[in-house]
Amino acid sequence: MSESIRISVDAMGGDKGPRVAVEGAYLFWRERKNTTYIFHGRESELAPLVAEFPELGKVSRIVHCDNVISMEEKPSQALRKGRGNSSMWAAVQSVRDGEADVAISGGNTGALMAMSTMCLRPIEGISRPAIAAIWPTLRTDIIVLDVGATVGGDAKQLTDFSILGAALARALFDQDLPTVGLLNVGTEEMKGHDEVKEAARILSAASGEGFVYHGFVEGDDIGKGTVDVVVTEGFAGNIALKTAEGTARQVGTYIRNALKADIISMIGAAIAGQALEALKRKLDPRNINGGVFLGLNGVVIKSHGGTDEIGFKGALGLAYEMARNRVMDKIAEGLRRFPTLNAAPAPAAAPEPEAKPA
Amino acid sequence: MSESIRISVDAMGGDKGPRVAVEGAYLFWRERKNTTYIFHGRESELAPLVAEFPELGKVSRIVHCDNVISMEEKPSQALRKGRGNSSMWAAVQSVRDGEADVAISGGNTGALMAMSTMCLRPIEGISRPAIAAIWPTLRTDIIVLDVGATVGGDAKQLTDFSILGAALARALFDQDLPTVGLLNVGTEEMKGHDEVKEAARILSAASGEGFVYHGFVEGDDIGKGTVDVVVTEGFAGNIALKTAEGTARQVGTYIRNALKADIISMIGAAIAGQALEALKRKLDPRNINGGVFLGLNGVVIKSHGGTDEIGFKGALGLAYEMARNRVMDKIAEGLRRFPTLNAAPAPAAAPEPEAKPA
User: Which residues pair with B302 in a beta bridge?
Assistant: First the structure.
């Protein structure tokens, strides 16, 4: 693969300052030499950092921007303050302006979603964007969306998310016909909100066109990897994601405590150390860092705000795969194919150019 | 404690037949001799089983009932077929008729909830029952409700669940002022459905009356044990519960695989065996088996359908604690105290007796 992938980086996002983004980019570049970088942020801080990695300097440029969105800012405040003139906005705008293939930020999720939506706008035919998580399971990685872009969601949105998630699965996992499941509760008859039932009806009718509709799945099907794409609205999806994180941390703590309980256990743990190290790597959230904003005219990756350079490198890997595998083309193809029942087939026309904000 | 606790058992519920219930009761009785049992089900099957445990025979009686609700039956079918004449219905009716202090079944959750609601009816002032889970966390066990009784729920229901959950925490954990949190998503501004925000307003105003309102909590706060009672509607709660179960199983599988990866790891695991055994017990779902139906004029415990006699014994332990600690009185007290903002204070009057079904 010799084609170059251009990555736009909000270097000021994240809790730990710009070093994480710059060093993460250097680490990733060493693995993928066909990448170039635009770092958005304060030149006085970024220039010395990039200078530490001369090879990175050759494949990147800095676009100066004074204004930085803080992690505490509310999305509406961030938009008022940072629209058009913050490192976060500028990072997304590079994608809109065709200067980059994908944008990445470790900043405030709500602000990044608000800015991405305003700057890139939803794809025609898609009513709202979603945040997709790449979720490790016992079978293979799967996609779960929406994990927090929007609270609530009607049947149209759930079917939109199915198209978006299936396109992402085709792009990332090279699957022709990913399976899609609707997240629901287990008890017969009380099964789900009306919008989930309606979405099930639409997806059943459309199954086979770019994905196979599996049916309802429950919370424990996520970890089993029962389907390739789990679709839900953002409230339940966010709670599922956070609950899984909390449970994994809880079980991890139990393990550590159990193996420190007495001297015999400590010796055993030391002997089994290599296996336990491998397990630790598997459970390391840094290796699966990154949420994907889907449904906009461009791809934006949200890296975890608290991550380090290893985690940021992981999120860059996700950004790279998204661009290299042309997820946007696959979404457009999905929209053309999908015989949506409550909306006219979406044209694959280019979005109207938006006037540049002042 | 010499007071006797009378437990009504649907002996035909569960996937593994009546032996689980009868043997589970015997195992529990050996630990708590102040218990007596009514076994509802087919006498021809139950009598020989009870005869295997002569001591149990002295503290129990069998109430014959031919009709058994299957695990596959829909709640409405189950009601039509089994109202008044199934082992499940009869088990609940013993509580209504004052013959037992608590009922337990390992049968079909939806059917059990439908029958319990029809037979016992909601407490005056409570609009809908909830299923509460006792959730092990890094701090201590906590209560999460609703984990699947009802999809959706308005602010009134969420505040009802807070009263019910707090009463359960006071009964089970002997806490005077349990902390209550509303499950929500993390992103500022998109925070929650309107009903969650409205419930937060009501609970803030009422905080200090039987519980302390902590504020919003997220999915990962459950495993941390941030609050004593996590309140949510049944869709999100069920997904959180199942996702946590799935994640715990997933991590458990990783551990087993890691420790079997090579001979060195196996030796290490053998040496650390005792600690790993303790961990396994901690993660054993049989030890935390049982959902509590709350909000009805009587307490019903749902044991997991697939559990064995050890798991059923665990669920009996929960039933015992509920009765011994007078959770019904604590709920009535909570309702009297709670200055509910959108309903008149509920009188603590006894419910009208319902006509016996034909």
Answer: B105, B291
Comparing CB atoms, the residue among A185, A188, A269 nearest residue B268 is A269
Min distance A59 CA to chain B CA atoms (Å): 35
State pTM to two decimals.
0.87
Interface ipTM: 0.84
Residues of chain A contacting residue B185, judged by C-beta atoms under 8 Å apart: 148, 151, 234-235, 238-239
User: Are residues B269 and A268, on separate chains, in Cβ contact within 8 Å?
Assistant: yes
Give yes or no for a contact between B227 and B207, defined as CB atoms under 8 angstroms apart: no
Nearest to A187 among B110, B275, B279 (CB): B110
Each residue's pLDDT, cut to its tens digit, for chain A (358 residues) gives 458 999 999 999 888 889 999 999 999 999 999 999 999 999 999 999 999 999 999 999 999 999 999 888 888 899 999 998 999 999 999 999 999 999 999 998 889 999 999 999 999 989 899 999 999 888 889 999 999 888 888 999 999 999 999 999 998 888 889 999 999 997 666 677 889 999 999 999 988 888 999 999 999 999 999 999 999 999 999 999 999 988 888 888 887 787 777 777 777 777 777 777 776 766 665 666 679 999 999 999 999 888 899 999 999 999 999 999 999 998 888 888 776 544 444 444 444 344 444 3
Indicate the helix (H) or strand (E) that contains B238.
helix B234-259
Alpha helices by DSSP H, listed for chain A, are 19-31, 43-51, 54-58, 75-82, 87-96, 109-120, 155-173, 194-206, 219-224, 234-259, 263-271, 273-283, 309-324, 327-337
CB pairs under 8 A between A and B: 249
The C-alpha of A241 sits at a distance from chain B's nearest C-alpha, in angstroms, of 7
Task: Kindly determine whether residue A279 and residue B270, on different chains, have CB atoms separated by under 8 Å.
Answer: no
Question: Looking at chain A, which residue has its C-alpha nearest residue B220?
Answer: A246
User: What is the least distance, in Å, from the CA of B265 to any CA of chain A?
Assistant: 4
Domains by residue range for chain A, with CATH:
1-123+291-325 (3.40.718.10), 127-259+328-341 (3.40.718.10)
CA distance B54 to chain A (A): 38
Check A268 against B265: CB less than 8 A apart. no
Sheet with A102-105, edge to edge strand ranges: A60-64, A35-41, A5-10, A102-105, A300-302, A291-294, A130-135, A142-145, A229-231, A179-183, A212-217
